[in-house]
Structures are given as structure tokens and as C-alpha cells.
Amino acid sequence: MVLLKLFLAFLKIGLFAFGGAYSFVPLIEREVVDNNQWLAKAEFLEILGIVKVFPGAISIKFATYTGYKIAGVPGAVVANVGNIMAPVLFIMVVSLLYSKYKNVPFVKGSLGMIQYAVFAMIIAVGLQLVDKTGIFQLKNSIVVLVAFAFFVLTKIHPAFIIMGAALYGGMIEWLTST
Known about the structure:
By secondary structure, the protein is mostly helical. The protein is built from seven helices and no strands.
């Protein structure tokens, strides 16, 4: 029964994960924290921080972590199959239809508005991920501004920006603790 619940929860995540990346973190949270209580809110946020360090899709990493925690290797496999099933089927159908209907006004309008909804959800998730009291500390504000500038104004790979922030944070903590 737990394998079926894992499959259905991650099928739902995969089914509604429009926009990718951080846009569907709220969907994952609702399923694994609120609806099924597989993870506590604090654990969810810790795992969200951890999965950002590793390459690959966030939903795959959450499916793997949650599935493994709940039901071992079979749980990880079942959660991931549920997670990727809907997007794989969708993209197969859409690839057939897109070239034929991409210029139809309703289709263009729908796809355009999805971008703005995803943008809003990414901002909301970003605000949830940070300690709002810490944002006004100089060391944190520097990271936000520098990371934003590097991301927007340069072609530096985001992984290097993240590694740079990690090194900066580690050095600041090390220097202030000694």
C-alpha cells in the first residue's frame, strides 16, 4: 500500500510540475509534508538545501530520498517511476502537436501565461527558503547581490556561483569563530 501511495503522490507531482525547477517545490512539499507526513517541515527544508548541491532534477532527488526513506530501494524506484511517467507521456504527445499548433493564439497565450505563473511561484519559493531576518545582515546581502549580478550579467555557470557562495560563507564563519 505504501508503494502505491508513493507512486500516486509522485505521479501527481510529475503531472502538475509545470515550469520545472523550483516552480513545483510547493507541490512536493504539499505531498510529502502536508498530505502524507513522510517528512516534517524542518526535514523537508534541510533536504531541499541538500538536494540543491547535487546535479539533476529536484523532483527526482526528492522522489529518491522520500521513496528510500519510506520503503527502501523499491520505494525510491516506484516514486521515481511515478514522478517521470506524466512528463514523459506529456512530452511525447506535445511534441506531436506543438509543431502543428504552436501559432494558434489560444496556445500561444496559454504558454505565455504559464511563464508568469511559474515566475511568481519561483519568487515565492525563494522567499520561503531564506531566513528573512538574515537577509539584512551585510554578509548575506553581499551574497544575494553578488550572486544576482553574476547570474544576470555574466556567463558564469550557476554551479560556480553556488560554490563561491559556499566558500565565502565557510570563510566568514571560520574567520569569525577563531
